[in-house]
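Blinded run. Sample ID left blank on purpose so nobody reads anything into the name before looking at the predicted structure. Input follows.
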Amino acid sequence: MGIAWNSTEHSDSENLQWCWLRASEWGCWPVFLSIPIVPIFLIFTKWWIVIGSVAILSILWSPIRDIIGNNISIAAVSIGAYLVVLKWITCPLAAFILILHHKYILAIIALLWPVIAGFFQIFCGRVQIGIYQNILMARIGCDYSEPFNKKHDLPWIKRDSAENVNLEFTVDEQHEIQKSFNYFLSDGQLYTPKECVDEVQKAIAARGLSNYAEDQASNASFVSDNKKQEEHMNKAIAAIWKAYSLFPLPIYIYDAACFIGMSCKYDAAVAAMKDFLKLQETFKPNQVHELFLSQRDINSAINDAKEKIRLYNR
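Blinded prediction complete.
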């Protein structure tokens, strides 16, 4: 077996996990490669030159990474994964040598560099791990993304005998909806014109579902298990579509597109982003809409949607 990853020798789950790990490393490549290297350089070079070089290379890496685009080398990311294992030798060895030279602070930095290096990721700019994961999966001959077909009935949509659509909410979603109502209630009453009560109630419920969707997407970013990630993202996508069904703000389509993109379903994400841009262009908000959009930056969402369409279509 060679150094480069061979997808045919591994399961689908292993391939997905490998691509996710290599994608996260590729996003901050100089920082990642510095882990076994910096401790050794601290022995021979002034510390501010070494650490400053990592910061500068990380800043330069962002535009270089964009230029490389889809041409990520499987051999390079594979070698990098093996190279970083040397940290278990270089970090304690460098710390020991620095202690012998009575450079105790540098010894601590060398020993803890794998942890300290994490703070330098900020210099690499925003990292689209999902995009790089998808590129790597394609490079190793795997493609697990499935377009999200909005024409099909979704699991939370039920139809009665007359084909009327009824939304069903999970226990967790109901809890978030209730929290949203509690937040907007004042002395047990909704202070709103009588003719707007129904619309405001739907808007509040939709806000609760939106909050729940954001929480699930956030939870997905903190777990490494692929199945749990998928479970959280499916919950996020389901909740945000329910929010849009209740209170059709175009921004909820944008949120759904972001969640779909995070799930590596890029064709579907592009389609949803285009839907958002088209709907937002003709959207004329009323007073209730404006109330619930007051905390959202629509112009930023429009610009981000255009940028994501460009990135996902690479």
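Unblinding after everyone has recorded impressions. Confidence is low (pLDDT under 50) at residues 144-160.
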